[in-house]
């Protein structure tokens, strides 16, 4: 029996088509994936991300412990700042990719993938058990009692303050929510409850992610939908969330990332800090960095009329030899560009942008070409 | 969203429609099917000259979300395919019963038509 978020009834009321995802019953779409995708690119979309996990760490050694467990350098975070990071096993394989926020001097909030909550908690428990100064901090899995929303799109900043007015009451001190800079997090009061509001997202657009106790999520959902209506805000489902992130080449755990794949192979070396001191997986990653990776995750696009690439399709070389290079991890028809796009692993010598490939679809091979990240860039904001 | 089920067509339980013109059957997918799929982005059609048996998976319709097989409701030779779908697959969404047709089959066994669903039967199926 899949789990339901606090917004299950809201999704039904809005005509959401429900599917199972990562053990959760979630809306894949309300109107259509393309419609919701383009709405996020042009106006704004509101996503239920209550299925995602929240892990809390507090105490004097919390930051030191997390810097051992995660690849990015947590010491770079000021209070109220967040960063993308990865958690690796000893072999450098990715246990999960996540966002970590420093919510107070010695308090951290991790937002992790829904499908990895149990695996992450188990892995962190194991590290905790082996940690010498465990009495100096504690960790809590707050996923069951915490909900989250993502408000994404160029118009999001035009009405967020209507719902979360006034200055922040915690984390980053700002006069209003729209004063938050990218990756900053503040606390804002809604119905007497402090909500975490972060200027982050998974779509490539400007936007905010909100985290609060589950019981207050539905009220915020309806309030945002109402306030955003004049700006074209629509609820958006997991289908659009997936096409939006694929256009940005953002990885999705279980597709581009797994315990046998390292951040360097995935093209996420930017989020691995080699100069911060020791962390789990460092030895393997240092070696990979020095010797180079054998396989790489590459973005590719279809050339000419072709069916959209989909996960599991075979990637072939196009040099006449017909070498089987790998498999598509993520793929779709890009709603913004109207061309088939995908991500997949190929041997490093086939990873250079502009390399010709072939994608096998139902026994036929269609031409494709590797390209650079991302597929889509938002139009630059006009200076006035 | 209610979907259109024209009364002059025959249907299959797998959501294809058939329009009979002389000894040729025009085949497409129903309004209900295109609403369920949404956003058709690619259509793969059978080659003309291919001999089909009723129930053969002979075309594929791809939405952003997924790829779905289309089955021939009748037996016979493919005599024409809708070339317009290559450049404009969205016709399947905008005109499922007109410009969005898939292929035409020269009927080899017209008695099969009697086994297809009437508009009334199909409408009952999709409302259930």
Q: How is the secondary structure organized here?
A:
The complex is a heterodimer of chains A (384) and B (128).
Chain A: E1 3-4, H1 8-13, E2 17-21, E3 24-29, H2 33-42, E4 45-48, E5 53-58, H3 62-69, E6 81-88, E7 94-104, E8 107-112, H4 117-130, E9 138-141, E10 146-152, H5 160-163, E11 170-171, E12 185-190, E13 193-198, E14 207-213, H6 217-228, E15 234-235, H7 238-248, H8 282-291, E16 295-302, E17 314-317, E18 324-333, E19 340-347, E20 356-361, E21 364-370
Parallel strand pairs in A: 1-3, 4-15
Antiparallel strand pairs in A: 2-3, 4-10, 5-8, 5-9, 6-7, 7-8, 10-14, 11-12, 12-13, 13-14, 16-19, 16-21, 17-18, 17-20, 18-19, 20-21
Chain B: E1 10-11, E2 16-21, E3 24-29, H1 31-37, E4 40-44, E5 51-52, E6 57-63, E7 67-71, E8 76-81, H2 84-87, H3 91-94, E9 103-107, H4 119-127
Antiparallel strand pairs in B: 1-2, 2-3, 3-9, 4-6, 5-8, 6-7, 8-9
List keywords for this structure.
heterodimer, A: 384 residues, alpha+beta, Gyrase A, domain 2, Elongation Factor Tu (Ef-tu), domain 3, 2 domains, 7-stranded mixed sheet, 6-stranded antiparallel barrel, 8 helices, globular, B: 128 residues, OB fold (Dihydrolipoamide Acetyltransferase, E2P), 6-stranded antiparallel sheet, 3-stranded antiparallel sheet, 9 strands, 34% strand
Task: Describe the structure in your own words.
The complex is a heterodimer of chains A (384) and B (128). In chain A, the strands form 4 sheets. Chain A has a 7-stranded mixed sheet with strand order 11-12-13-14-10-4-15. Chain A is built from 8 helices and 21 strands. Chain A has helices at residues 8-13, 33-42, 62-69, 117-130, 160-163, 217-228, 238-248, 282-291; strands at 3-4, 17-21, 24-29, 45-48, 53-58, 81-88, 94-104, 107-112, 138-141, 146-152, 170-171, 185-190, 193-198, 207-213, 234-235, 295-302, 314-317, 324-333, 340-347, 356-361, 364-370. Chain A is globular, with a radius of gyration of 21 Å. The longest helix of chain A is centred in the N-terminal third of the chain and has 14 residues, at 117-130. In chain A, strand 20 (356-361) and strand 21 form a beta hairpin. With 128 residues, chain B is an alpha+beta fold. Chain B has a single domain (10-108), classed as OB fold (Dihydrolipoamide Acetyltransferase, E2P). Chain B has 4 helices and 9 strands. In chain B, a hairpin with a 3-residue loop joins strand 6 and strand 7 (67-71). The longest helix of chain B is centred in the last third of the chain and has 9 residues, at 119-127. Chain A binds chain B through residues 28-29, 31-35, 239, 243, 305-308, 310, 332-333, 335, 338, 362, and chain B through 38-39, 41-42, 44, 60, 62-65, 67, 86-87.
